[in-house]
Task: inverse folding
């Protein structure tokens, strides 16, 4: 009898701990694998994300699910003052970011209301157990008028590009991730896109939890996407 494969996606009740354990395991080689998976384009996308905040030098920016600190470093290079928060102790321990680091679940962050000027989040929405609660927390910690910038995976609209992207993301990435890091983690990451709502649905949630002026852009032909928004004065 053939052995059944281990489940790629954790059940809802187990997701938080499964995600924490997975990112603890891949933390030491996380940045290297990212560079390989994106052909180095991830650096360009992070610069676009920080620029989308449009904040003055000296602004305090919270990097939610900061990982090893790539976005935080990009923000610091632009004169912003980053604070990193992540669920994974392994990621925080491997961080090369600047500024304070805090272990925290995005849906229950240990920060006061209206305390930061901007908020960054890179490729993490699909890892949150309760996405709407996490976005509501992001709105809570931002000052009225504060800026939000979120990077996530996407899929090209062009049929030929979409076919190539699907092969790379769903077939090649798990193999490369398995060779360089942890096989099960890099099987999970492509599969986890099922947790990600459509751009229209995510826009609706952002407005519902307290954001306005939500803007959506596809990057590099649609292999990545950027959401930016402003924390409403009301709500």
Result:
């Amino acid at each position: 009898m053939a052995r059944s494969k281990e489940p790629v996606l954790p059940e809802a009740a187990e997701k938080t701990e499964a995600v924490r354990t997975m990112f603890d395991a891949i933390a030491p080689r996380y940045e290297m694998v990212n560079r390989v998976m994106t052909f180095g384009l991830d650096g360009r996308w992070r610069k676009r994300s920080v620029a989308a905040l449009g904040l003055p030098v000296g602004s305090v920016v919270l990097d939610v699910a900061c990982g090893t600190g790539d976005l935080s470093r990009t923000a610091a290079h632009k004169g912003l003052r980053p604070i990193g928060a992540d669920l994974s102790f392994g990621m925080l321990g491997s961080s090369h970011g600047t500024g304070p680091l805090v272990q925290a679940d995005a849906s229950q962050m240990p920060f006061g209301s209206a305390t930061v000027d901007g908020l960054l989040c890179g490729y993490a929405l699909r890892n949150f157990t309760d996405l709407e609660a996490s976005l509501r927390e992001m709105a809570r910690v931002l000052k009225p008028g504060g800026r939000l910038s979120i990077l996530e995976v996407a899929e090209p609209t062009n049929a030929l590009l979409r076919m190539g992207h699907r092969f790379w993301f769903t077939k090649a990435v798990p193999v490369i991730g398995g060779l360089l890091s942890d096989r099960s983690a890099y099987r999970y990451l492509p599969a986890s896109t099922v947790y990600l709502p459509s751009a229209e649905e995510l826009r609706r949630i952002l407005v519902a939890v307290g954001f306005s002026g939500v803007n959506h852009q596809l990057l590099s032909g649609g292999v990545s996407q950027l959401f930016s928004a402003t924390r409403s004065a009301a709500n």
Q: What stands out?
A: The domain at 12-154+196-231 is CATH 3.40.50.150 (Rossmann fold). DSSP finds nine helices and seven strands in the chain. The longest strand covers residues 142-153. Residues 159-180 form the longest helix (22 residues).
